[in-house]
Amino acid sequence: MSATENKPEPRPYAVVAGVSMRDLLASCEAARAVSTPPRVPDPGTGRVVERKAA
């Protein structure tokens, strides 16, 4: 038996065991929420506060 016969075949992709699709999608959504800057408020919907003259 040669040394090359004892080597296992390499896997074509990484196997991630123990991670459910729900957890994977939740982590992607959380990463997107954290990395997205907050929206700028719409100027047409803001309330105008009047200052009283002293």
* Overall number of strands: 0
Q: Give me the strand/helix succession.
A: H
Average pLDDT metric: 77
Q: Give the strand content.
A: under 5%
Main sheet summary: none
Spatial separation of the terminal alpha carbons: 97 Å
Oligomer: single chain
Q: Helix/strand-derived class?
A: mainly alpha
Secondary structure blueprint with pairings:
Elements: H1 21-35
Characterize the structure shown.
This protein is mainly α and about 55 residues long. The protein has 1 helix and no strands. The protein has one helix spanning about 20-35. The chain is rod-shaped, with a radius of gyration of 28 Å. The N and C termini lie far apart (about 95 Å). The model has no long low-confidence stretch (mean pLDDT about 75).
Short description:
The chain is mostly helical and 54 residues long. It has one helix spanning 21-35.
Write a concise keyword list for the protein shown above.
1 helix, 54 residues, mainly alpha, 28% helix
